[in-house]
Amino acid sequence: MSENFFCNKCGAQNTAGAQFCSRCGAPTNLAPGSPAAAQGPFNPMPSYAVSASSYPPAAQAVGYGGFWIRVLAALIDAVIVRVVAAPVALILGGLGMAGMMTGLPHAGLAILGGGVTIMLVLLGGWLYEALMESSSYQATLGKMILGMKVTDLYGNRISFGRATGRHFAKILSGMVLCIGFIMVGLTQRKQGLHDLLAGTLVRRG
């Protein structure tokens, strides 16, 4: 039976009586003929196989929605809101016009129709944007079509309250020649003034 033994640190084979490993220099502390001298070769790798699923997924590159693509998304959303409000305006406006032509006391419906349409656009625009961006979709239809979503600074879904604050902060972004919107093209993470105030990001990809 060979009196050679294997180093417990690096697995190198050493001759009997060696006090230090011939490969790594670690002290062996083994006497010839000891039980450790007859052990098999050192295997530094675990006996089980590591599956690919054991490793964390690679981080995906995340971009931000720039100025022009967000303008396009806003135009799509504006069309959607107005299409929803249009039937009410047509009904009330049509009744008003009919009242004016027949002399019925419903001529004010024409004016009322325009006012109701404006209110629907304003209130509908707020609810549409705040509800969609705080939902699991995290985006309005315009943003969804163009592959964007609204998150907080850590990539999480925002609340309805924060989405509401972001929506009305756009009033400030529109002041003074729309500088708050122009900031989207100038800031590092493509944040407009309303994004900075609400603590949000528009992510793409």
Describe this structure in words.
- This protein is mainly α and 205 residues long.
- It folds into 2 domains: 1-44, no CATH class; 64-204, no CATH class.
- Helices cover 47% and strands 8% of the residues.
- It contains 5 helices and 5 strands; from the N terminus they run E-E-E-H-H-H-E-H-H-E.
- The strands form 2 sheets. Strands 3-5-4 form a 3-stranded antiparallel beta sheet. A two-stranded antiparallel ribbon has the order 1-2.
- A hairpin with a 6-residue loop joins strand 1 (5-6) and strand 2 (13-14).
- Helix 1 (67-102) runs antiparallel to helix 2 and helix 2 crosses helix 4.
- The longest helix is centred in the middle third of the chain and has 36 residues, at 67-102.
- The chain is rod-shaped.
- The two termini are 65 Å apart.
- Residues 34-59 have low confidence and may be disordered.
Fill in the keyword field for this structure.
single chain, 205 residues, mainly alpha, 2 domains, two-stranded antiparallel sheet, 5 helices, 8% strand
